[in-house]
């Protein structure tokens, strides 16, 4: 077992025993700055050999194969199995079999892990503001909840964990983001704090909680929008594209993983 498995973020939630989860941070890899050190993204300019070693370390730590998606800030969900290959274009995934890990890469966007109380399935979603808002009120979380077998699970039997993301003290957005959420749900206004003319601070995790609650999901754990969950301000622990790319040109990627044991 990797010694870094104990150092990485372990979700604190009442998931069934066969449901396993972990969220990597910057530590435990071989990548050099500015990807130091546990960069898992193969599209951010890091050396391919370093990324491969880091991904191998992650797989060893999990005891299951992480499947890396090509995330495009959309709402598509895919079902993973033993034959699933890396690079499928989707922003959410589901697994009902052991051996493969639903894996979401982030560096400011919100990773969302889901399971049911019986441990029948696990799922994960990549929720930046575009994917979370979606179109006509259907974003990546709604699309995932409408996918089988999630759609057959009563909302009261759903468990959700929200991982670290850009926090409400750092996520400066324009009017298009406010409109993307507020036009569909006026209650979203509480998650935007006005700044100067035409700018707001947005609470991405809070918006995700609202979207989940609108679907009857109430058992939501993890990111409560407090500063210690913010990828931008917690520079020693988390990668942040918004923080790092401005200064260093690029940033690494972390992974949130959820999988079933036999």
Entry summary:
The chain is of the alpha+beta class and 262 residues long. Helices cover 20% and strands 23% of the residues. The strands form 3 sheets. A 6-stranded mixed β-sheet has the order 3-4-7-6-8-12.
Structure notes:
- The chain is of the alpha+beta class and 262 residues long.
- The chain contains 6 helices and 13 strands.
- The strands form 3 sheets. It has a 6-stranded mixed β-sheet. Strands 1-13-5-2 form a 4-stranded mixed β-sheet, covered by helices on one side. A 3-stranded antiparallel β-sheet has the order 9-11-10.
- The mean pLDDT is 96.
Instruction: Tell me the major beta sheet.
Output: 6 strands, mixed
| Helix count from the secondary structure assignment | 6
Q: Would you identify the regions where 5 or more consecutive residues have pLDDT less than 50?
A: none
Percent range for helical residues?
Answer: 10-25%
For the termini, the CA-CA separation is 17 Å
Give the DSSP E fraction (strand runs of 2 or more residues): 15-25%
Count of β-strands:
13
Average pLDDT metric: 96
What is the N-to-C succession of helices and strands?
EHEEEEEEHHEEHEEHEHE
Q: In terms of structural class, how would the helical and strand content be classed?
A: alpha+beta
What is the radius of gyration? 17 Å
């Amino acid at each position: 077992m990797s010694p870094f498995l104990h150092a990485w973020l372990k979700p604190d939630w009442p998931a069934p025993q066969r449901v396993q989860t972990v969220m990597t941070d910057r530590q435990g890899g071989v990548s050099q700055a500015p990807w130091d050190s546990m960069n898992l993204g193969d599209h951010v300019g890091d050396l391919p050999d370093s990324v491969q070693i880091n991904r191998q370390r992650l797989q060893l730590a999990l005891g299951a194969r992480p499947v890396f998606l090509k995330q495009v800030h959309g709402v598509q969900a895919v079902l993973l199995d033993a034959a699933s290959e890396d690079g499928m274009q989707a922003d959410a995934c589901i697994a009902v079999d052991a051996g493969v890990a639903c894996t979401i890469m982030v560096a400011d966007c919100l990773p969302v892990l889901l399971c049911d109380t019986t441990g029948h399935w696990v799922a994960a979603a990549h929720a930046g503001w575009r994917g979370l808002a979606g179109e006509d009120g259907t974003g990546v979380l709604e699309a995932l909840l409408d996918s089988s077998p999630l759609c057959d699970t009563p909302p009261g039997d759903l468990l959700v964990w929200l991982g670290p993301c850009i926090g409400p003290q750092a996520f400066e957005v324009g009017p298009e983001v406010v409109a993307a959420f507020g036009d569909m749900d006026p209650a979203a206004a509480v998650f935007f704090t006005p700044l100067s003319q035409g700018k707001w601070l947005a609470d991405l995790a809070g918006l995700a909680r609202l979207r989940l609650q609108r679907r009857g999901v109430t058992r939501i754990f993890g990111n409560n929008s407090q500063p210690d969950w913010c990828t931008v301000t917690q520079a020693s622990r988390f990668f942040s594209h918004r923080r790092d790319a401005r200064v260093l040109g690029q940033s690494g990627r972390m992974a949130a993983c959820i999988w079933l044991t036999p």
